Amino acid sequence: MTWTIDADAVEQALEFNPAAVMLSFGDPSPFVDRIRRSDAVLIVQVTDLDEAKQAVDEGADVIVAQGTESGGHGARRGRSTLPFVPLAVDIAAPVPVLAAGGIADGRGVAAALALGAAGALIGTRFQATAEALVDRSISKAILEGHGQDTERSSVLDIARGASWPNERYTARTLGHPYLDRWRGREAELAGDSQARQDYQDDVARGMIPSLPVWAGEGVDLITDLPPAADLVTRLAVQAEDALAWAGRRRPNDQPPAHG
To answer: What pLDDT, on a 0 to 100 scale, did the predictor assign at position 252?
Structure first.
């Protein structure tokens, strides 16, 4: 997260000889040269067209175009995945672009490919896998969640004392009592130290989860907790089926079933 790291953090990451380093949320330029001098692939996630143009100018090897349907943090004034990805593809060509935001099954991967992306970066769906390093309550909430219950807001960052630059980035989460309590009153919450202490006290008492449940709008499509490797295979098969169906589609055909 480029808004919060420094050169030492990048150097420490590179000591592990990573195959790739991904920069997101902020100006990547202070760290690009050092990463490019290593053997790591430079991936830059972008949330608007200005960031996409900068990523190209900085020489990113891969660009991730993140739409506002995504779970977790993203642009306060971003673009939806469907219109954003092809624009990013046009700007970045021939640099490969990965689509992100609201993609939770192989049909979404197929759609990303149809938009010109080289693939997809998928977050929420992989939180609900057997190996995911999340509390089981998070997985359960994702399995039971609905896209209409997700909301992009800065309330929970303010309440929990996270220092995200709220003027630029908000976060999409599942519903939460503090969202209902403070929606539209962010400035008041930021100035209320007792309210922020109440949040910590409620976490300590187990009345609210220790972390917000980051979840994108595709959460309805998540119905099980498979091993991650099985999920990758399923996504590939579903994408192939969707692309094949689209290629031979007739007006009265029905879409393929997906389990």
So the answer is: 62
List strands edge to edge, sheet with 41-46. Answer: 20-23, 41-46, 62-66, 97-100, 119-120
Query: In the prediction, which pLDDT does 145 show?
Result: 94
CA distances from 39 to 14, 83, 104 (A): 9, 33, 31
Residue with tokens 């994702």: 142
Give, as one character, the DSSP assignment of residue 255. Answer: P
Contacts 24+ apart (CB under 8 A), 240-248: 240/106, 240/110, 241/106, 242/106, 242/107, 242/109, 242/110, 242/111, 243/110, 243/113, 243/114, 246/110, 246/114
Q: DSSP assignment of 16-49, as one string?
A: T--SEEEE-SS--HHHHHHHHTSSSEEEEEESSH
d(CA 42, CA 33): 10
Give 126-169 pLDDT, tens digit per residue.
999 999 999 888 999 999 999 999 999 999 999 999 999 988 99
Stretches where the chain sits below pLDDT 50 are none
List, for residues 241-252, the tens digit of each pLDDT value: 999 999 886 656
Secondary structure element (H or E) that encloses residue 12, with its range = helix 7-14
Between CA 196 and CA 29 the distance in angstroms is 34
- Cis, bond preceding 209 (omega within 30 deg of 0): no
